[in-house]
Amino acid sequence: MEVTEDSYSKQTLSVTNRNINNWIIPQLGDYFIIDLNPKILEKFVLTLKENKLSPSTIKRIFIIIRSALQHAENLEIINKNPAEKVKLPSIKKKEEKIWSESEVKLFFENANSTNPSFYIAYLLAYYTGARQAEILGLPWSNVNFVNNCITISQTLINNGKEISLTTKNETSKRIIGLLIL
User: Fold this and answer.
1) Which helix (H) or strand (E) element contains residue 39?
2) Per-residue pLDDT tens digits for 79-91
3) CA–CA gap between residue 143 and residue 149 (Å, rounded)
4) For 67-76, what is each residue's pLDDT tens digit?
5) Residue 52 exposure: Cα atoms within 13 Å on the Cβ side
6) Where are the domains of the chain?
7) Helix (H) or strand (E) holding 58
8) What is the pTM of this model?
9) Cα(161)–Cα(96) distance, integer angstroms
10) Superfamily of domain 10-85
11) Cα end-to-end span (Å), the chain
12) What b/e string do you get for 25-55 counting C-beta neighbours within 10 Å, with b at 16 or more?
Protein backbone atom coordinates (compact mmCIF):
# COMPACT_ATOMS: atom_id res chain seq x y z
CA MET A 1 0.00 0.00 0.00
CA GLU A 2 1.52 3.32 -1.07
CA VAL A 3 0.03 6.78 -1.40
CA THR A 4 1.14 8.58 -4.56
CA GLU A 5 -1.54 11.25 -5.04
CA ASP A 6 -0.28 14.28 -6.96
CA SER A 7 -2.17 16.74 -4.75
CA TYR A 8 0.04 16.00 -1.72
CA SER A 9 3.49 17.40 -1.02
CA LYS A 10 6.45 15.04 -1.02
CA GLN A 11 6.82 15.53 2.74
CA THR A 12 3.15 14.60 3.34
CA LEU A 13 3.52 11.55 1.11
CA SER A 14 6.68 10.52 2.93
CA VAL A 15 5.05 10.76 6.37
CA THR A 16 1.88 9.03 5.14
CA ASN A 17 3.77 6.13 3.57
CA ARG A 18 5.94 5.80 6.70
CA ASN A 19 2.78 5.58 8.86
CA ILE A 20 1.28 2.99 6.52
CA ASN A 21 4.43 0.84 6.53
CA ASN A 22 5.28 1.23 10.23
CA TRP A 23 1.83 1.02 11.80
CA ILE A 24 -1.10 0.19 9.53
CA ILE A 25 0.29 -2.74 7.56
CA PRO A 26 1.95 -4.47 10.55
CA GLN A 27 -1.22 -4.18 12.67
CA LEU A 28 -4.03 -4.45 10.11
CA GLY A 29 -2.38 -5.89 7.00
CA ASP A 30 -3.67 -9.43 7.60
CA TYR A 31 -7.33 -8.31 7.55
CA PHE A 32 -9.54 -8.07 4.49
CA ILE A 33 -11.31 -4.71 4.28
CA ILE A 34 -14.70 -6.37 4.66
CA ASP A 35 -13.56 -7.98 7.94
CA LEU A 36 -12.61 -4.71 9.64
CA ASN A 37 -15.00 -3.56 12.32
CA PRO A 38 -14.99 -0.88 15.05
CA LYS A 39 -13.71 -3.35 17.67
CA ILE A 40 -10.63 -4.25 15.58
CA LEU A 41 -9.99 -0.59 14.84
CA GLU A 42 -10.36 0.38 18.52
CA LYS A 43 -7.80 -2.30 19.40
CA PHE A 44 -5.51 -0.79 16.75
CA VAL A 45 -5.88 2.67 18.34
CA LEU A 46 -5.11 1.15 21.75
CA THR A 47 -1.93 -0.40 20.32
CA LEU A 48 -0.86 3.02 19.04
CA LYS A 49 -1.49 4.49 22.52
CA GLU A 50 0.52 1.68 24.13
CA ASN A 51 3.38 2.54 21.80
CA LYS A 52 3.33 6.04 23.30
CA LEU A 53 2.26 7.80 20.09
CA SER A 54 0.80 11.24 20.66
CA PRO A 55 -2.94 11.77 20.17
CA SER A 56 -2.24 13.95 17.11
CA THR A 57 -0.07 11.22 15.54
CA ILE A 58 -2.75 8.62 16.26
CA LYS A 59 -5.33 10.88 14.61
CA ARG A 60 -3.06 11.40 11.57
CA ILE A 61 -2.62 7.63 11.20
CA PHE A 62 -6.32 6.96 11.69
CA ILE A 63 -7.29 9.52 9.05
CA ILE A 64 -5.47 7.33 6.52
CA ILE A 65 -7.55 4.33 7.55
CA ARG A 66 -10.80 6.30 7.68
CA SER A 67 -10.17 7.72 4.19
CA ALA A 68 -9.32 4.31 2.72
CA LEU A 69 -12.45 2.78 4.23
CA GLN A 70 -14.56 5.73 3.03
CA HIS A 71 -13.22 5.10 -0.47
CA ALA A 72 -14.12 1.40 -0.13
CA GLU A 73 -17.64 2.41 0.95
CA ASN A 74 -17.96 4.80 -2.01
CA LEU A 75 -16.93 1.96 -4.34
CA GLU A 76 -19.53 -0.27 -2.59
CA ILE A 77 -16.86 -2.74 -1.46
CA ILE A 78 -18.20 -2.33 2.09
CA ASN A 79 -21.64 -1.19 3.21
CA LYS A 80 -20.53 1.04 6.05
CA ASN A 81 -17.27 2.65 7.13
CA PRO A 82 -16.37 1.00 10.48
CA ALA A 83 -13.86 3.75 11.27
CA GLU A 84 -16.65 6.30 11.70
CA LYS A 85 -17.65 4.74 15.03
CA VAL A 86 -14.15 4.69 16.56
CA LYS A 87 -13.39 7.27 19.23
CA LEU A 88 -9.90 8.71 19.06
CA PRO A 89 -7.93 10.11 21.99
CA SER A 90 -8.56 13.79 22.54
CA ILE A 91 -5.83 16.23 21.64
CA LYS A 92 -5.07 18.51 24.54
CA LYS A 93 -3.93 21.98 23.62
CA LYS A 94 -0.57 22.69 25.19
CA GLU A 95 0.05 26.00 26.84
CA GLU A 96 2.82 27.77 25.01
CA LYS A 97 5.69 28.95 27.17
CA ILE A 98 7.35 32.04 25.80
CA TRP A 99 10.95 32.63 26.75
CA SER A 100 11.90 35.75 28.63
CA GLU A 101 14.49 38.11 27.18
CA SER A 102 17.14 36.69 29.51
CA GLU A 103 16.29 33.09 28.48
CA VAL A 104 16.62 34.03 24.80
CA LYS A 105 19.98 35.72 25.46
CA LEU A 106 21.22 32.65 27.39
CA PHE A 107 20.06 30.33 24.60
CA PHE A 108 21.96 32.27 21.94
CA GLU A 109 25.08 32.48 24.09
CA ASN A 110 25.03 28.70 24.59
CA ALA A 111 24.16 28.02 20.94
CA ASN A 112 27.04 30.13 19.71
CA SER A 113 29.57 28.49 22.03
CA THR A 114 28.39 24.86 21.83
CA ASN A 115 27.10 24.60 18.26
CA PRO A 116 28.18 27.57 16.15
CA SER A 117 27.27 25.83 12.89
CA PHE A 118 23.58 26.07 13.84
CA TYR A 119 23.82 29.53 15.38
CA ILE A 120 22.80 31.42 12.21
CA ALA A 121 19.88 29.02 11.65
CA TYR A 122 18.67 29.70 15.22
CA LEU A 123 18.98 33.45 14.66
CA LEU A 124 17.00 33.21 11.42
CA ALA A 125 14.29 31.15 13.09
CA TYR A 126 13.98 33.51 16.02
CA TYR A 127 14.03 36.79 14.11
CA THR A 128 12.10 35.78 11.00
CA GLY A 129 9.67 33.07 12.13
CA ALA A 130 10.81 30.89 9.23
CA ARG A 131 10.22 27.17 9.60
CA GLN A 132 13.10 24.72 10.13
CA ALA A 133 12.67 23.18 6.67
CA GLU A 134 12.62 26.64 5.09
CA ILE A 135 15.84 27.72 6.80
CA LEU A 136 17.65 24.47 6.05
CA GLY A 137 16.53 24.65 2.42
CA LEU A 138 17.60 28.28 1.98
CA PRO A 139 20.13 28.57 -0.88
CA TRP A 140 22.72 31.35 -0.95
CA SER A 141 21.06 32.68 -4.10
CA ASN A 142 18.03 33.58 -1.94
CA VAL A 143 20.09 35.66 0.48
CA ASN A 144 20.26 39.27 -0.68
CA PHE A 145 22.91 41.23 1.22
CA VAL A 146 22.32 44.37 -0.87
CA ASN A 147 18.63 44.68 0.08
CA ASN A 148 19.04 42.88 3.45
CA CYS A 149 16.41 40.22 2.83
CA ILE A 150 15.95 36.52 2.27
CA THR A 151 13.51 34.88 -0.12
CA ILE A 152 11.72 31.77 1.12
CA SER A 153 10.84 29.68 -1.93
CA GLN A 154 11.89 26.10 -1.17
CA THR A 155 12.27 23.64 1.70
CA LEU A 156 14.44 20.75 2.80
CA ILE A 157 12.36 17.55 3.02
CA ASN A 158 12.57 13.80 3.52
CA ASN A 159 14.75 14.02 6.61
CA GLY A 160 17.29 16.26 4.90
CA LYS A 161 17.69 14.12 1.80
CA GLU A 162 15.96 16.31 -0.77
CA ILE A 163 15.12 19.91 -1.66
CA SER A 164 11.55 20.71 -2.59
CA LEU A 165 11.29 23.70 -4.90
CA THR A 166 8.04 24.65 -3.18
CA THR A 167 7.06 25.74 0.30
CA LYS A 168 4.49 24.28 2.69
CA ASN A 169 1.79 26.27 0.88
CA GLU A 170 1.61 29.17 -1.58
CA THR A 171 1.39 31.84 1.12
CA SER A 172 4.63 30.50 2.63
CA LYS A 173 6.56 31.88 -0.35
CA ARG A 174 7.74 35.25 0.88
CA ILE A 175 10.49 37.80 1.14
CA ILE A 176 11.65 38.56 4.68
CA GLY A 177 13.52 41.78 5.43
CA LEU A 178 16.50 41.60 7.75
CA LEU A 179 17.73 44.35 9.99
CA ILE A 180 21.50 44.27 9.76
CA LEU A 181 23.29 46.03 12.60
Assistant:
1) helix 38-50
2) 999 999 999 999 8
3) 6
4) 999 999 999 9
5) 0
6) 10-85, 101-177
7) helix 55-74
8) 0.65
9) 31
10) Tyrosine recombinase, N-terminal domain (1.10.150.130)
11) 53
12) eebbeeeeeeebeeeebeebbeebeeeebee
